[in-house]
Structure formats: structure tokens, C-alpha cells
């Protein structure tokens, strides 16, 4: 009962800013006797440089599945986890799971401290594989150049190692499953040979015990130069998960925003839904009806290019992302709440508010129109997207719910920005949403 009171006080503090404000008050509202939060020493610039810099160095050759570079990456990651005290949770007492026809997954765990809650898992992931060199995979650029994959996805693995080590030093009540998938990239993407898809089909801990899945992909850079937004997508399918993310204090200077996963997935042509596509390892967990979040900063102009290198990363931002993720896991890992899952649920007002902020920033000085020297057509389309979304936002803020047409408009605005920020299509093609 006391624990419940402490929990309510803690949430109230986070939501309403209630403050006592002596240090002893904090002692009472830290969740349920786990003592102080885990240390953030593992997210120092030096540590992130060591881990992310290593994995994205030329010696790893772009970490393509089946190459010595991918093996080196696994050896490095497993060694880091072992040194921190993370336990193996793969096949036959090892950290590894062989993906039939694909790659090799890495799975470790930090055992929870509570007799009952430790039977549940918070799963966090960042795939370690990348595209090798130009000419072998889908990475495009001058022949033979190495695609180092610093943003995609060494940065996420660096955060994963840091969070795993922090929690291994100071575990939560629930167990934490540390996963670094192989074969995320083409040609295995979204097939049964994709590491995450394979694990969900062949789980090494009971799938029903995984209560939340947190996937990081493309977390090392900015959506466009010097625009720091950091997205948590998909939590709208679990009201409890969304509430937890909303309640955790955001680091100063890092705008962390929620948005509906459907906005990023629903490809809309001339305002009409055309197709949907998943973007990363969260897809298998969603299919298994597990509450999930896709954590990403989106594709930028270096996506799947040899220019995706360590020196282009935003290290202070990565450190802040890690701290926030650790705080979210600490909340999820110490609560008695078991998040529910509602397929297709949306938080339309949250989406509209996030989009107004994004589109406003896109048009402002230093926004994407400026920094990428976009055409007047792109600019006027973004202006019209903003006008549409602003009207939707005002209407939803007044208490009404969004129509299908309004949701389509928000998806189209999202798709246009993603298209313009990334490098998969020409600027002209981005006008078709
Ligand atoms: Zn990729």
C-alpha cells in the first residue's frame, strides 16, 4: 500500500510539478525501494565515443551480415555486456541466437530484483548490422566505399550498451531484455530472416513475459542540420505506456515528442492512403500485440550512404537520449502497471501538436527549407500542410475527434517532411503526398 502511495506521489510530482522541495521528499518518491536511479556515467562523451566510434570504424567494414565485420561487432557488443554483468539470454546459455537463413542475434538480460515482477521483461533493441561497402548491398555512393552506419545503427547500440550497463549495476524490479538484432537491413528487412522477426517467432524467453518493446533506429543525428527533435512513436497504442513517457522529465534542450506510428508508415498520394510500410524492428513486436515504441530521429541526407560516419553524429544529443531512455525504463521497470495494447489506437491531438511544431520549425529560419535550400514549391506545400494541421489542431484542442480525412492530411504532411529530409526520393517526388 505504501508503495502505491509512493507511486501516486511520484506520478503526481512528474505530472503536476508538485514539489516539497527538500531532498528527503525525493527519497520518498523514488519508485519503490530501488534506491537511487542508475548512474549515467555510461553515457559520457568518452564512453559513447569509445563504443560508437569503435563499431562505426573502418575496421568493421560496414558490419554487413555474414562478414568478419559483423562477427567483430558481435564480439565487441557481447564483451561489453559481459564485462558489465549482463547475463546471456540467447540459445544454449550464450548471448547468441542463430537466425536461420539470416544473421545472428545478440540477447542478454538484467535480472529484475522483485520475486514477482522479475518474471516480466522490458525489452530494448538496436540492430547492429549495416550494409557493408558500396556495391555489395543497397548503400549508394562511390564504388568500394565503406558504409560505416554510425547513425544506422551504431549510435543505438552505444546507447543500448550504456543503458544495459547502468541497469546491470542497479537493476529494476522487472527484468530487462537487451537485444541487438542482426539482419535488420536489406535483403532481410521485414522478412522471416530479419533478426527481430525471427526472435519473435523463436523467442528465447517467453514472449508473453515481454510487456514492452523499445526499438531504437537512427538515433545519432538530426532530422535536418541542427534540428534536435527526438521521436517516440507507437506509444499511442498503449495508453499506460504513453502516460509513462509523458510523465518522465525531458532533458533540457532535447525536444522529445510523441507521434503516431501510422503517420510515419502511411504513404499517402495526393491525400489518399496508398500503402503502409514498417520502418524497423518494432514491427514484429507490434504484430505480437506487445506495447512498443519506435525511437528515432528519422532519415537524413546521409542515410544508407558512406557519409553516415561517426564525425557526423551529435554526441551530446545521444547522451541525453540515453538518459531519457534510462529514466523511461526505470519507470516502466519499477511499476506494477502492465501496459495494455490497442491495435490502431491514435492520439490525434498529440499528433497534431507535434506536427505543428515540426512544420513551424521546418519553415523557420534555420529550418529544413533554409538549410537544405528547398524549392519554392516545397516551401508552399509545407506552408499549406502547416495551415491544414494548425486547423486540425485547433479543432481537436476544442474537444472534437479527428476525421479520417484529417488523419490522412497529417500523414501526408509527415510523409512530405520525411521525404524532404531523407534521400530516398527526389525533391520533386516529395510533392506527391
Ligand atoms: Zn538501415
Let me know the number of strands. Answer: 11
Known CATH architecture of the largest domain: 3-Layer(aba) Sandwich
In terms of DSSP E residues, the strand content is 5-15%
CATH topology of the largest domain: Aminopeptidase
Average pLDDT value?
A: 91
Largest sheet: 9 strands, mixed
What is the CATH C-level name of the largest domain? Alpha Beta
Supply the CATH superfamily name of the largest domain. Zn peptidases
Poorly predicted residue ranges: 1-33
Radius of gyration of CA atoms, rounded to a whole number: 21 Å
Q: List the quaternary state of the chains.
A: single chain
Ions and ligands = zinc ion
Q: What sequence of helices (H) and strands (E) makes up the elements? A: HHHHEEEEHEHEEHEHEEHEHHHHH
Question: What is the fold's blueprint, element by element?
Answer:
Layout: H1 2-16, H2 23-29, H3 45-55, H4 68-84, E1 87-88, E2 96-98, E3 104-110, E4 121-126, H5 150-169, E5 175-180, H6 195-201, E6 210-216, E7 230-233, H7 239-247, E8 256-259, H8 261-265, E9 266-269, E10 272-276, H9 282-287, E11 292-296, H10 315-333, H11 348-363, H12 368-371, H13 376-397, H14 404-421
Parallel strand pairs: 4-5, 4-6, 6-11, 7-8
Antiparallel strand pairs: 1-3, 2-3, 3-5, 7-11, 9-10
Helix pairs in contact: 3-5, 4-5, 5-10, 11-13, 11-14, 13-14
The structure holds zinc ion.
Zinc ion binds at residues 152, 185, 304.
Task: Looking at this protein, list some descriptive labels.
single chain; 433 residues; alpha/beta; Aminopeptidase; 3 domains; two-stranded antiparallel sheet; 14 helices; 11 strands; disordered N terminus; binds zinc ion
Amino acid at each position: 500500500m505504501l508503495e502505491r502511495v509512493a507511486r501516486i506521489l511520484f506520478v503526481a510530482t512528474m505530472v503536476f510539478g508538485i514539489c516539497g522541495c527538500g531532498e528527503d521528499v525525493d527519497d520518498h518518491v523514488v519508485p519503490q525501494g530501488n534506491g537511487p536511479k542508475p548512474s549515467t556515467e555510461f553515457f559520457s562523451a568518452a564512453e559513447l565515443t569509445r563504443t560508437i566510434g569503435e563499431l562505426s570504424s573502418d575496421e568493421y567494414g560496414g558490419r554487413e551480415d555474414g562478414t568478419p565485420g559483423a562477427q567483430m561487432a558481435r564480439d565487441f557488443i557481447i564483451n561489453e555486456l559481459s564485462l558489465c554483468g549482463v547475463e546471456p539470454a540467447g540459445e544454449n546459455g550464450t548471448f547468441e541466437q542463430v537466425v536461420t537463413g539470416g544473421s545472428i542475434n545478440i540477447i542478454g538480460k538484467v535480472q529484475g530484483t522483485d520475486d514477482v515482477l522479475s518474471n516480466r521483461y522490458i525489452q530494448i533493441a538496436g540492430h547492429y548490422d549495416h550494409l557493408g561497402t558500396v556495391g555489395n548491398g543497397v548503400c549508394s555512393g562511390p564504388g568500394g566505399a565503406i558504409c560505416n552506419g554510425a547513425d544506422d545503427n551504431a549510435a543505438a547500440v552505444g546507447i543500448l550498451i550504456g543503458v544495459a550497463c547502468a541497469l546491470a549495476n542497479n537493476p529494476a524490479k522487472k527484468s530487462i531484455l537487451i537485444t541487438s538484432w542482426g539482419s535488420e537491413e536489406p535483403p532481410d528487412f521485414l522478412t522471416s530472416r530479419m533478426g527481430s522477426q525471427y526472435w519473435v517467432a523463436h523467442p528465447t524467453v517467453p514472449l508473453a513475459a515481454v510487456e514492452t518493446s523499445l526499438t531504437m533506429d537512427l538515433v545519432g543525428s538530426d532530422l535536418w542540420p541542427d534540428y534536435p527533435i527526438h521521436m517516440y512513436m507507437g506509444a499511442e497504442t498503449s495508453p499506460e505506456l504513453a502516460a509513462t513517457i509523458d510523465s518522465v522529465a525531458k532533458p533540457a534542450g532535447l525536444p522529445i515528442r510523441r507521434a503516431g506510428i501510422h503517420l510515419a508508415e502511411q504513404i499517402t498520394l495526393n491525400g489518399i492512403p496508398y500503402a503502409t510500410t514498417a520502418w524497423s524492428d518494432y514491427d514484429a513486436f507490434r504484430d505480437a500485440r506487445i506495447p512498443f515504441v519506435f525511437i528515432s530521429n528519422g532519415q537524413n541526407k546521409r542515410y544508407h550512404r558512406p557519409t553516415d560516419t561517426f564525425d557526423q553524429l551529435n554526441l551530446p544529443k545521444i547522451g541525453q537520449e540515453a538518459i531519457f531512455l534510462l529514466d523511461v525504463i526505470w519507470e516502466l521497470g519499477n511499476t506494477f502497471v502492465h501496459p495494455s495494447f490497442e491495435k490502431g489506437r491514435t492520439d490525434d491531438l498529440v499528433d497534431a501538436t507535434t506536427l505543428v511544431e515540426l512544420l513551424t520549425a521546418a519553415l523557420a529560419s534555420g529550418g529544413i527549407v533554409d538549410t537544405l535550400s528547398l524549392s519554392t514549391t516545397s516551401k508552399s506545400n509545407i506552408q499549406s500542410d502547416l495551415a491544414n494541421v494548425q486547423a486540425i489542431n485547433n479543432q481537436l484542442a476544442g474537444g472534437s475527434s479527428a476525421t479520417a480525412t484529417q488523419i490522412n492530411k497529417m500523414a501526408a504532411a509527415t510523409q512530405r517532411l520525411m521525404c524532404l529530409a531523407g534521400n530516398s526520393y527526389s525533391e520533386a517526388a516529395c510533392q506527391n503526398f
